[in-house]
Amino acid sequence: GAVVSQHPSWVICKSGTSVKIECRSLDFQATTMFWYRQFPKQSLMLMATSNEGSKATYEQGVEKDKFLINHASLTLSTLTVTSAHPEDSSFYICSVLPGQGVETQYFGPGTRLLVL
Amino acid sequence: AQTVTQSQPEMSVQEAETVTLSCTYDTSENNYYLFWYKQPPSRQMILVIRQEAYKQQNATENRFSVNFQKAAKSFSLKISDSQLGDTAMYFCAFMKLQGAQKLVFGQGTRLTINP
To answer: In angstroms, what separates the C-alpha of A83 from chain B's closest C-alpha?
Structure first.
């Protein structure tokens, strides 16, 4: 399967600051990446679909101006949590859909965000 | 819209036993994939097994196999000879092939393998 990295693996920040999370596909070029959020003991909630070279598609209820997504290349997508608040504390996971016959999403290890 | 339902929030079995996790889904699509993902305490999502809807043969991966009943929209996972390392959350997921290829997840089943 595809190897996906995320950086950082965990981050603690003060309320009001912005945090950037990187998602890299290490062995596939991916035109499509996905960002999820997961609360403790719950399932994954899709936040947005990140498309290389175009604007991300956000799920209903997800604030576009709050969660900025940039898919700058075929191997890198970033999620920026702007003006973070304690309620943004969560586990954020990205996934890669290689496409071209590989119709399976492979996940990064996740990023734990704690906003104080 | 598609929905995926896992009706067993928690399950617990002894090591070496066989366990079956249930999953049902609802869709009007004809072409889709179904997946089982495992999330151990590290929280890394790991693909366990995949089933293409157009294939009648049930997928198998070593100790893991599925019972795919397309007409009943059922997709259960059987784990044979369970091991301590199988302890994890298991998520059933659906992905249609046309349009936005988003995964739709079930609520998850927490599986504990006891020594």
So the answer is: 26
